[in-house]
Structures are given as structure tokens and as C-alpha cells.
Design a protein that fits this description.
By secondary structure, this protein is an all-alpha fold. It has 3 domains: 15-68 and 89-218 and 406-501, no CATH class; 225-394, no CATH class; 547-813, no CATH class. The chain is built from 35 helices and 6 strands. The strands form 3 sheets. Strands 1-4 form a two-stranded antiparallel sheet. A two-stranded antiparallel sheet has the order 2-3. Strands 5-6 form a two-stranded antiparallel ribbon. A hairpin with a 3-residue loop joins β2 and β3 (276-280). The longest helix is centred in the first third of the chain and has 39 residues, at 79-117. The radius of gyration is 33 Å and the shape is globular.
């Protein structure tokens, strides 16, 4: 945003009328320099295109750093935006360097011509060189500011390898090139001090990122933690089996849990002839879940009752990381984790919920037991959701929240800025050849906009748009620079806030509070934690969401556009799924093993519907029941005018149906089926749907009612007419939907049919969650870049507690046919 006016008033310039029509004559030399770049018709199209593209890029950065974060304190950038920005920024420096060279050469030519006619128009610099043109300096300023904002699309690297180091070398080369452009091309002290300071900030940000990456890679608390934790868990399993031997008391299980929250990196590795490599366990070194749970936190728990569960999520995140990094999880650990969650945490949540309800003494519309189950289910899901968020930020964070602790806060946000500003001051002094007073005065004298005022110049440019069209793009240039600078300043403030409010810092503070008595006795430290908890409670926290897709295009203006709609996971869905998992873990479903919905149909004695589940293709089962559920949803619409509340069973069935369809359409790698097989099933379904609707055109534009009528017509055709297409998904789904509608009208009623569908979709969703191989695990790891999927939360729960799909499908078990998932 810092520019210099080199030109004097030219009465023959087109800008003269502009100055006479309201622009302050004092600003005219500066405005002339700004608009002179567009006077050359040869480069006008390039100049205009550059200004427009830069304005769009600056607006995008501004939006990402402000509007998209007003209700989100996440340190993860949406991967779709990152996918767009990464290639754009990779081309940014070469393209802008070329434009900088063109602007520099053009400015030198204009200066030479001006000097030959009027020596007062352009002054010669030492060594026969001329100062950079204003257009060239504007481009150089853009390059520096974009380099400062580039970390927005670069995740903190925690992997060791050639790729991570190549990224560092690439960025270092960009910084070196920018340093060359700044210090070789700028001559005046004031401009060199401003641009040099920005370059020092960019170089310091690079060194900071390199130091953080190396610390993460080499530390046993971060990059090497998976192996360290595996040794720790092996020692725990050898020395202590109390976790499995304790009775049914939930508090006792949690109090004696030795899962590490923090501190295991400080344990020493020992070598013994008898035991081989092992960690030497010491008291008061590792802060465990039991230490957190037995600690009396007093009013901290009143401010946020979930902070202890947050520490449990952190411990589970560490355990799950080993699954991603090829460290096995033993059966003993799985068994103890299952007991901890479904005997310990579950009972503790029930107890605390009962106490809370009795304390509040509020009247509720629903049954009290139902309300308790809902509250407990939401809390349990939150534990695993927070765990997935820790994983997301560990692998894909663009901010160093992983290192959140009091020491890192002191080093990174207090000491580091002091050192950086010391180097900026040194650069400022060197630019003035040691004359501090001269350097300070040069900032104003050499940079016209500082002495004149940014807003004054901006208003002048806005007025000039009416009289001189070239000023429009000059105004855009100035707006781009201001937007980039404001975005950079906002980014620094927001990074600080994200760090302070992150779950990582809260877990670190709670561990310090638990392990050190001086923290508990200190009013300042305790007040600091309370203050952060208060701000966190006021801020909007990320909520567990999933995406919805309608394969039939119901509820959309363009039916063929199966674009996902994001929706918060309803509490009813959490309750139904958690109730099913708890019953499954406790063996209440011994006669109904986990299946793709087939067991639910047997429970409801709906044998005539069972053939819709008797398929080895999970995608085919999902799409068949999705079509049937969608038809039932249209057949019995909600009365919007009467604001009819959505029943729990209907909401569970429709939302899980939409999410399962989304997995087939957009995330087939998260399903247990072969990826290409899933894609083929969906492709064949689309082709069949086009055929049923009467062609490609009607597939794209037909209305919801027309689609419904066509599918019902297909379902009511005589069996012999559709025998050849008996295996077609759309026809199977239409016939299944027709049967469900007949069941609803014949006697079971709409509510009972929705109950059947809710239970079926609940079982099918849980059936999809367990791992089916290493490729499936890798897919869940890659899904973390999106902030985590709902199915990934269920996968984490299944991985911790040992829930698996049966090796033989239940409908084939009686026939003795093996069917591996």
C-alpha cells in the first residue's frame, strides 16, 4: 500500500481535467503516476486483467480470513478452497515476476523519455539507474503480501520425507527471489525500509514454519509419539490389568484409567536382556485420564462440565493415531477401551445427567428416561467427535495449534515477535546507512501516500472514475493492496485467538493444573483457565454434521444436480445409533448379529422385504432402500403450513438415508465395498433412472411429482414385464417403496413403517463403519482433510471398542455360504 509519486504536474496530461474537476491538486502527481500505467494501449489489456485477477484473489483471502471464521475457530482450511488456491499460488510468483519485469522496463523507458524533455519530471539516481515505476512497486508489494498470506493454504508438516523438504526449499527460493527484487531494485531509503521490513517478516515466517515443522517431526510428543505411546501401552498392559478386573462402578474405571494424556514423551527408554526395549514408568511423569478424573476441579467443571471428557478425547486421539501409522492395537487394549467407554464413561454420564436433571427441576415434554438417554448419547458422540477433530488438526492444520502449551505461547507469541521486530529495526537502520533520523524522515518524504493519507487518495480516485476511466483500475489496484494488508493483519490476530481457544491449549492447561500444585494454588493461573473457558462457551464451536444427497433429486430445483447439503446430525440419530451400539456391545443382539439391515427385518418379521438386503454389494442395498425411503417421504409429506414436527423415526430414517446416498455418490472409498464396484453401481443406477424417466432431458428437468409418478408406475407393472430387470436398482427400490406404502395403508400405519426404516438405516449405518482393510483406514485418514466425516466418527468408535462386521452374512449363514465383508 506504500507508493511514491515521482512525477510532476503535466498540463498536457489527460489527468489535468481530472484534477480540475474536484481532485486536490496536491494529489495530482500521485494520481498521474497511478494511472500512467494504463495510458499505454499496448499493455492495457494485461494491466486490466492483472488488476481484476488480483482483486478476486485479495477478496478470496479476505473472505477466508474474516467472514468464513466468524462462527468457526477451526485451524483447518476447507480442502476444496486449498485445491483451488494451491495451483493458483504456485503460478503467482512466476507470472507476477514477469509482469514486474515488464512494468520495470516500461517505467525505465518512460523515465528516460521524460528526462530527455524535462529533467524536473524524473530525477536520476546513482549509477545511472532510475527508481522503479509505481506500477512495478505495486506488483512487488502484492508479491510480498501474498507470500505472507501463503501459509493459509499450507498445512503444518508432520511427515518426514523428500516432499516435506522440497516444500521448504521451494518457499525459501521464493523468499530469496523476493529479497533480490526488493534490495536490488529499490534505491530510495524510505521505500527500501518499508519493502525491506515486509521481506524480513516473510523470511521470519519461513524460519518459524521450518522450526515448527522440525520440532513436530523430531519430538516424541508429536511426530514420534505413535511409537512412544505403543511402548507405553505395552508396559501398562504388562503391569496393570485392573481396568478389566474392576466391577461395574463407572467412576472407578475412569479413576484408574492409565491412558496417557500428556507426559509419556518424558519417559526413558531402557534396554534389558530379559524384557528388551521398554519404557521405565515413573510416578508423576505421565498425566493420565485417571489423574484428570480424580482431580477436584471445582468451579472449572461448573463452567464447562465437558472438560474432563475433552482430555479423554485427547487420550483416545493418541491411541487412534497409531492405527494410521501402522502400529497395531492389541485385543487387550480394545477390551479395556470397550469397558472404559461402555461401562465406565456411560454410567458416569448417566449419573451426572440424573444429578443435573434433579438439580434443574425442569418439566420436560418427553419421558425423563428418554431425555437422559439423549443427553448421554450426545455426550458420547461428542467425545469421539472431539477425538476426530484432534486428528484433523494434527494432520491438516494451517496453524501451529498442535504445539499449544504455555511454553510455546511464550516463545511463539511473545519472544518471537520481539526478535522479529528487532530484525525489522535493524533493516530500517541499514537502509538509512546508520542514520536513523534520516531513515525515519525518508519514510514520509519518499512515500507519497503516507504523507498525504490513504483515505484522501482513495476518495480522490473514486471521484476521478467519472472523468477518467483509467482511474477505475487504479482504484482496484489500491483496493487490492489495502485488502491484502488488512487480511494479513487480521490473520495474525485470528491465529492468536485460535491458539488461545483451541482444544489443544485447554488440554495442556488442564494437565498443568492437574500435575502441578502451584497451578492449583495460583489464583492467576486458575483465573486464566476460567477466563478461557468463559470465552470458549460464548464462541460458536464446531458441530457434528453430515451431508445429504437425494439420488432421485427430490427437494431440488435441478433434480440431476446431486450436490450435497450440509446438515447438523440430529440428536435423535445420535441417540438411536448409540442405543443400538450399547445393546450390541452388551450382547442384547445375540440373535440379531450386525448386518446391512437384514437382522432388523427379521426382528420385525418383514421377511417379504428381506431380499432387498440379500446382496453382497453394500452400495446396491443403500441405493435400493434410499429410493424406497425417498418415495415414502414424498408419499407422506409434512404439512409445512401447519408446521408439523418431524417424528423421531422419520428424521432418523430420512437423514441416514441421505447420508448413505452421499457416501455412495461422493465418498465411495469410505464404504466397505470395492471403490470401482461402488462407482459402477451408481453409474448403472443413473442410467436406469434416465431410462425410467424417459430420457436424459427429463432426467435433468422433470419435477418431483412427475418422478414420483413414473417410479410408482414402474413398481406397479406386472412381474413378468420387469422380470428381465429384476436386479435393476431403481426398479427394486421402486417396488420396495411401493410395498412400504402398502404396509402403511394396510394396517401397520405410517409411524410403524418409519420405525422399521429408522431401525434398518441405523443398523446399516453402523454396519458400514468398521474397517474392511488398510485401504479403508487410509481413506478415513484422507477424509480428515475435510474436517472428518460422520462415518469416520463411527469408525473411531468401532476401532476403539472392537466392533466388526461378521465374516459370514446372516442370510447366508444358514446355508453355510461364506461371505466376507
Amino acid at each position: 500500500m506504500i507508493f511514491l509519486a515521482n512525477s510532476q504536474h503535466d498540463s498536457n496530461s489527460p489527468n489535468t481535467s481530472y484534477a480540475r474537476h474536484g481532485c486536490d491538486a496536491l494529489l495530482h502527481p500521485f494520481v498521474h503516476n497511478l494511472t500512467a500505467s494504463y495510458a499505454d494501449q499496448r499493455n492495457e489489456s494485461t494491466m486490466v486483467f492483472t488488476s481484476v485477477v488480483m482483486f478476486m484473489l485479495a477478496a478470496l483471502f479476505f473472505n477466508l480470513n474474516l467472514f468464513s471464521r466468524l462462527s468457526d475457530v477451526s485451524a483447518i482450511l476447507n480442502p476444496t478452497v486449498r485445491l483451488f488456491l494451491s495451483p493458483s499460488l504456485s503460478l503467482f510468483l512466476p507470472v507476477m515476476s514477469y509482469l514486474f519485469s515488464e512494468a520495470k522496463n516500461e517505467g525505465a523507458a518512460l523515465a528516460a523519455a521524460s528526462y530527455s524533455t524535462s529533467s524536473s519530471y524524473s530525477r536520476q539516481l546513482g549509477g545511472g539507474a532510475t527508481e522503479l515505476s509505481l506500477r512495478a512497486r505495486t506488483i512487488l508489494m502484492w508479491m510480498l503480501l501474498v507470500e505472507l498470506l501463503r501459509k493459509k493454504v499450507e498445512a503444518i508438516l508432520v511427515s518426514v520425507g523428500a516432499q516435506s523438504y522440497s516444500s521448504t526449499i521451494d518457499r525459501a527460493s521464493r523468499i530469496a527471489w523476493l529479497g533480490y527484487l526488493v534490495f536490488y531494485n529499490l534505491s530510495s531509503t524510505g521505500k527500501k525500509a518499508i519493502y525491506g521490513t515486509l521481506w524480513v517478516l516473510a523470511a521470519a515466517k519461513l524460519l518459524q514454519r521450518v522450526a515448527i515443522n522440525e520440532l513436530l517431526k523430531r519430538s516424541f510428543a508429536y511426530g514420534k509419539n505413535a511409537e512412544q505411546l505403543s511402548w507405553y501401552m505395552a508396559q501398562i498392559e504388562k503391569q496393570d490389568h485392573q481396568l478389566q478386573e474392576v466391577g461395574d462402578d463407572g467412576a472407578e474405571l475412569l479413576n484408574k484409567c492409565k491412558y496417557a494424556v500428556m507426559g509419556e514423551e518424558d519417559l526413558e527408554m531402557k534396554v534389558s536382556p530379559m524384557e528388551g526395549y521398554h519404557l521405565e514408568l515413573k510416578d508423576n511423569v505421565v498425566v493420565t485420564v485417571g489423574d484428570i478424573w480424580t482431580q477436584d476441579m471445582g468451579d472449572l467443571l461448573q463452567q464447562d462440565p465437558s472438560i474432563k471428557r475433552l482430555c479423554l478425547s485427547f487420550a483416545l486421539y493418541k491411541l487412534l493415531r497409531r492405527r494410521f501409522e501402522d502400529h497395531p492395537i492389541t485385543d487387550v487394549e480394545t477390551s479395556s477401551c470397550r469397558s472404559l467407554i461402555f461401562r465406565g464413561l456411560l454410567k458416569e454420564l448417566l449419573r451426572s445427567t440424573e444429578v443435573a436433571l434433579s438439580t434443574q427441576k425442569v418439566e420436560v415434554e418427553r419421558n425423563e428416561d428418554d431425555l437422559k438417554d439423549t443427553v448421554v448419547a450426545v455426550a458420547l458422540f461428542q467425545v469421539f467427535y472431539e477425538e476426530i477433530q484432534f486428528l484433523c488438526e494434527y494432520y491438516h492444520s494451517v496453524l501451529p495449534v498442535v504445539l499449544s502449551n504455555p511454553f510455546f505461547f511464550l516463545a511463539n507469541y511473545i519472544l518471537f515477535p520481539i526478535v522479529v521486530w528487532a530484525f525489522c529495526l535493524l533493516t530500517f537502520i541499514l537502509c538509512g546507512n546508520g542514520d536513523v533520523v534520516y531513515a525515519y524522515r525518508s519514510i514520509t518524504t519518499d512515500n507519497y501516500i503516507i504523507s498525504t493519507g490513504t483515505m484522501k487518495v482513495f476518495v480522490c480516485l473514486l471521484r476521478g472514475v467519472v472523468y477518467y476511466p483509467g482511474v477505475l483500475f487504479t482504484t482496484i489496484d489500491l483496493a487490492v493492496t489495502m485488502l491484502l494488508l488488512l487480511t494479513f493483519l487480521y490473520e495474525q490476530v485470528w491465529e492468536f485467538l485460535v491458539f488461545i481457544l483451541s482444544n489443544w491449549l485447554m488440554v495442556s492447561l488442564l494437565c498443568e493444573y492437574t500435575a502441578k500444585r502451584r497451578w492449583r494454588d495460583s489464583r492467576i493461573r486458575a483465573g486464566l483457565i476460567r477466563g478461557i473457558l468463559w470465552v470458549r462457551r460464548k464462541m460458536s464451536r464446531p458441530n457434528l454434521c453430515f451431508k445429504q444427497v437425494s439420488v432421485l433429486g427430490f427437494g431440488r430445483r435441478l433434480p440431476s444436480m446431486s450436490l450435497p447439503k450440509k446438515k447438523a446430525v440430529p440428536t435423535e440419530v445420535k441417540k438411536f445409533i448409540m442405543d443400538y451400539i450399547v445393546a450390541h456391545i452388551h450382547g442384547h443382539h445375540v440373535d440379531a448379529p450386525l448386518s446391512n439391515g437384514w437382522s432388523t427385518l427379521q426382528k420385525y418379521s418383514s421377511h417379504q422385504l428381506s431380499n432387498a438386503c440379500e446382496s453382497k454389494s453394500v452400495a446396491e442395498v443403500i441405493l435400493t432402500w434410499h429410493i424406497a425411503t425417498s418415495l415414502l417421504e414424498v408419499k407422506y409429506p409434512l404439512q409445512k403450513k401447519k408446521k408439523t414436527p418431524v417424528g423421531a423415526h422419520r428424521q432418523v430414517a430420512t437423514t441416514l438415508s441421505g447420508y448413505a446416498a452421499y457416501l455412495v455418490v461422493s465418498r465411495p472409498e469410505l464404504l466397505p465395498d470395492n471403490i470401482e464396484g461402488t462407482k459402477r453401481v451408481y453409474s448403472d443406477t443413473k442410467d436406469e433412472l434416465k431410462d425410467v424417466l424417459g430420457g436424459c432431458w427429463r432426467y435433468h428437468v422433470s419435477q418431483q411429482g412427475t418422478r414420483f409418478d413414473k417410479l410408482v408406475e414402474v413398481a406397479e407393472r406386472p412381474e413378468e414385464e420387469t422380470a428381465a430387470a429384476a436386479a435393476a436398482v431403481v426398479r427394486k427400490g421402486a417396488k420396495l417403496g411401493n410395498k412400504l406404502m402398502q404396509m402403511a395403508e394396510a394396517g401397520r400405519g405410517e409411524d410403524q413403517v418409519w420405525e422399521l426404516l429408522a431401525d434398518l438405516w441405523m443398523e446399516l449405518t453402523v454396519y458400514l463403519a468398521p474397517s474392511s482393510g488398510e485401504l479403508h483406514v487410509k481413506a478415513h485418514k484422507e477424509a480428515l482433510a475435510l474436517g472428518g466425516e460422520f462415518i469416520t466418527v463411527l469408525w473411531a468408535l468401532c476401532t476403539h471398542t472392537g466392533i466388526t462386521r461378521p465374516a459370514v452374512a446372516p442370510w447366508e449363514a444358514t446355508a453355510g455360504v461364506s461371505c466376507h465383508p
